[in-house]
Design a protein that fits this description.
6 strands; 3-stranded antiparallel β-sheet; alpha+beta; 12 helices
Length: 254
Amino acid sequence: MKPSIPKGTRDFTPEDMLKRNFLFDTIKSSFQRFGYLPLETPSMENLSTLMGKYGEEGDKLIFKILNSGDFLSEVSADELSAKNSKKLTASISEKALRYDLTVPFARYVVMHQNEIAFPFKRYQIQPVWRADRPQKGRYREFFQCDADVIGTNSLLCELELLQLIDDVFAKLGLNVVVLINNRKILSGIAEVFNESEKIIDITVAIDKLDKIGPEKVAEEMRAKGVSEKAIDGLKPLLVFEGSDQEKLICLRNY
């Protein structure tokens, strides 16, 4: 059999590694200059830590790890014949590969809250895994780069993160446009339409706007049980155009 690697993964040649290490070293130097501390968490987490944090769609993309040994020994014949994957997973898998770096970071903070000096500024550059359909620019194994501040409500930290991003791209000589969002706006709109419990489904659907367009986004929200009133109310925001001032006026009159 010809040697191969799993779909959605890549080998990195020495030439690739030299370029990637240059990028990582540049990013790390900026992070550390702004006072962010390095942190690493395990490649795997307890499945209970990850499940329920990314919405129903995200949960399906988590790579579960089978328990060691005869993992089917504790499963009854009835459970096997029922073919209920959710119940079966609970019996045969206790761990999973991390889906992102945010949830492991939150878990770390909870476990070590009595040892951490707040506000706590950390950065992580580590691989994550998602059981997604591989396609151009979309892999099942890839690196994420996170920088977060926890333990403060100061907007100065938000400003500092923007300065940090600008510093990184300036060092790399890349001209970029930084887009800023605020989930509180979407949460407030969802609350107006009595859809607070659907906020994850709403944000996951809107996140696909550039890829599938407003009509498909509306269809996805509808499939998740979001009310027609909420979908109609959100539609103007899906085709938000005009100057910043015009957009602010539109939001105030929303």
